[in-house]
Amino acid sequence: MINMAARVALRSYPPSFRERYGCELEALVEDTGAGPSVVADLLVGSLRAWLRPVMPDESAEGRRRRMQASVATTWVTWCAALYALPMLDFILSEEPGLTPDLVRRLLDVAQYAMYGAGLIVLTGGLAVLAETSRTGNRAALRPLVALIPTLPTWLIAPFLLVYASIDPISYWVGALAVLGPAAFLITMAVAPAVVVTRCRPSAKVLRLLALSGVAVAFAVTTTGIACVAALTMNTDDAAQLITMPILAVTVAASAAALVSSGRGAKAALHRERPVDLGGDV
C-alpha cells in the first residue's frame, strides 16, 4: 500500500520520467514499503531527475527535453534568488554602518539584474501561454490553480503580523503570517516549472526560452556573488550567522542555473533542428 507521502513524491518526478519508469517505480515502492527513508530517497531522486533528466535514445527529442528541463530549472533558481535578495537586504539594513559600500553596490547590481531577468522570464511565460492557448492544451495549465488558495495568505500576511504583535498569545496567527506566504512562494516557484514540462512547448519556443535562460542564469549568479560578498565583508557575527542559509540557497541556485542553462543553450544551438513533438498537442 502506497501512502499519501509516497504518492506525492512519485508525482513530483518529471512527466517524461513517469512516462518511462513511473509504473516500475510505483511497483517497487509497493514491494519495499513506503517508509520515511523511502519517501526521502524518492524526493532526492525526483530532484536529480529534474536537474539531470533521462533522455531518450532519439537525439532530437533528447535535445528538446534538455531545453525543457533547462527552462524549468532556470525558473526555479530565479525564484529562489528573487526571494533571497530582499531578505539579505533587510538583514543588512539592520546594521547599515557595518555593511561595506562594495556590498551595497553589488546588491544594487543584483537587484537590477534580477528585474531585467524578470522581464525575460515574463516574455517567455507569455510566449508559452500564447502557444498553449493556440493549441488548446489548457489542461497543462492546471498546476497554476494551486496559486489560488495560497495567494490570499500572501496578501493578508502584513495584517496578520500586525494582529500577532498586538496579541502575543495568537501564535497561530503569526505562524500563518509566515507559513502562508512561504507556501505561496514555493508554489509560485514550482507550479510554472511543472506547467512548462506538461504543456510541451514547440521547439521554436523552447529554443527562445533556453537561450534567454543564459541571461537569467547570470542574473541569478549576481545575487550569489552579492551574498558571498555580504558574508565575507560584513563584520557583524549575528548578521553573518543569519546570512549563511541565504548564502547556501543562492550559491546552489547560481550553480544549478549556470549548469542547466548552459546545457539548454547547447541543445538550442545544435545544428539540427529539434523535432517539434509538442507543438500541436
Compact overview of the structure:
The chain crosses the membrane at residues 72-92, 112-132, 144-166, 172-196, 208-232, 238-259. With 281 residues, this protein is mainly α.
Features:
membrane, mainly alpha, 0% strand, transmembrane, 80% helix, transmembrane helix, single chain, 2 domains, Butyryl-CoA Dehydrogenase, subunit A, domain 3, 281 residues, 9 helices
Written description of the protein model:
- It is a single chain.
- With 281 residues, this protein is an all-alpha fold.
- The protein folds into two domains: 1-54; 61-137 and 200-268, Butyryl-CoA Dehydrogenase, subunit A, domain 3, CATH 1.20.140.
- 80% of the residues lie in helices and 0% in strands.
- Helix 4 (59-93) packs antiparallel against helix 7 and helix 4 packs parallel to helix 8.
- The relative contact order is 0.16.
- The chain crosses the membrane at residues 72-92, 112-132, 144-166, 172-196, 208-232, 238-259.
- Keywords: Membrane, Transmembrane, Transmembrane helix.
**Main sheet characteristics:** none
SSE succession: HHHHHHHHH
Gross CATH architecture of the largest domain: Up-down Bundle
Question: What's the total helix number?
Answer: 9
Q: How much helix is in the residues?
A: over 70%
Q: How many beta-strand elements? A: 0
Gross morphology is globular
Assign the structural class, choosing from mainly alpha, mainly beta, alpha/beta, alpha+beta, or little secondary structure.
mainly alpha
In the CATH scheme, the class of the largest domain would be Mainly Alpha
Beta content comes to under 5%
Oligomeric composition of the shown chains: single chain
The rounded distance between the terminal residues' Cα atoms is: 34 Å
Unreliable stretches covering 5 or more consecutive residues: 273-281
Keywords: Membrane, Transmembrane, Transmembrane helix
Transmembrane segments: 72-92, 112-132, 144-166, 172-196, 208-232, 238-259
